UniProtKB/TrEMBL annotation:
<keyword id="KW-0479">Metal-binding</keyword>
<dbReference type="InterPro" id="IPR045121">
    <property type="entry name" value="CoAse"/>
</dbReference>
<dbReference type="Pfam" id="PF00293">
    <property type="entry name" value="NUDIX"/>
</dbReference>
<dbReference type="GO" id="GO:0046872">
    <property type="term" value="F:metal ion binding"/>
</dbReference>
<dbReference type="InterPro" id="IPR015797">
    <property type="entry name" value="NUDIX_hydrolase-like_dom_sf"/>
</dbReference>
<dbReference type="InterPro" id="IPR000086">
    <property type="entry name" value="NUDIX_hydrolase_dom"/>
</dbReference>
<keyword id="KW-0378">Hydrolase</keyword>
<protein>
    <recommendedName>
        <fullName>Nudix hydrolase domain-containing protein</fullName>
    </recommendedName>
</protein>
<keyword id="KW-0460">Magnesium</keyword>
<keyword id="KW-0464">Manganese</keyword>
<dbReference type="GO" id="GO:0016787">
    <property type="term" value="F:hydrolase activity"/>
</dbReference>
<feature type="domain" description="Nudix hydrolase">
    <location>
        <begin position="53"/>
        <end position="190"/>
    </location>
</feature>
């Protein structure tokens, strides 16, 4: 009897855990408002001491695929001048014709993937992340309307080499979460291993901040450790 009770409890907890990622919860009006409030309230991140010289907008695209909520990622083409071969969200540099960074993100998404802005429900924007490349990046949250299919996209192969999705359960599974710290870096960065391609760098940081806003703690908990950089002076190891 006790054994059966434990099985029932585990099943109940599993159902509750899975329901956290269900579309009716994620896409509810209450959760959308909560997500935008938390995401927009996160502090800006500056990786350089001076003001950036470029501005960019990227879309964090939610989609509904095979009954599950997922995030869409792109792999940048190998021939691009910057960030070639890296996993990213659709987006790019602000154009003089763009009224704001939200418009930049939507325009670039249509140019890269052929998704018109009328097919994207914009939730809101977050605070900037200023990169070491002197670019201020504004993230825009948007849901691609309807049932999504990657094979229906009109991918611009001159900019995008591949497109893939990762559902929320895989993104948030503890076994797929990690972190990395570059040599001499001022902070550790999140890493996601649950998708077709490892997600790291700025895209992982945006994913981390977004999931932390979208889901409750029991649905997403990503522990990131920081190790003091090690310096070697005259064959002696010093920790800063």
């Amino acid at each position: 009897m006790i054994f059966k009770s434990r099985i029932s409890l585990l099943k109940s907890l599993g159902c509750r855990y899975s329901s956290l990622y269900a579309s009716e919860n994620v896409f509810s009006e209450k959760n959308i408002k909560k997500t935008v409030a938390i995401f927009s309230g996160k502090k800006p991140i500056k990786m350089i001491p001076h003001e950036p010289i470029k501005r960019a907008g990227v879309l964090i695209p939610l989609c509904f695929v095979d009954g599950k909520v997922a995030l869409l990622y792109t792999l940048r083409a190998a021939n691009l001048k910057s960030h070639r071969g890296q996993v990213s969200f659709p987006g790019g540099m602000q154009d003089i014709t763009d009224k704001n960074l939200e418009e930049t993100a939507l325009r670039e998404t249509e140019e890269e993937l052929g998704i018109p802005k009328k097919d994207i429900e914009v939730w809101g924007s977050g605070n900037v992340i200023v990169t070491k490349r002197e670019t201020s990046v504004t993230p825009v949250i948007g849901r691609i309307k309807g049932d999504f299919r990657v094979d229906k996209l009109k991918v611009n192969i001159s900019e995008v080499e591949d497109v893939f999705i990762v559902n929320l359960e895989d993104l948030c599974s503890p076994q797929n979460l990690g972190y990395t710290q570059f040599r001499g870096a001022f902070a550790s960065m999140p890493v996601f291993n649950g998708g077709k391609i490892r997600i790291w760098g700025l895209t992982a940081l945006l994913t981390y901040r977004f999931l932390d806003s979208l889901l409750p703690h029991q649905g997403y908990s990503h522990s990131i450790k920081y190790l003091n950089p090690v310096q070697v002076y005259n064959n002696k190891t010093n920790i800063r």
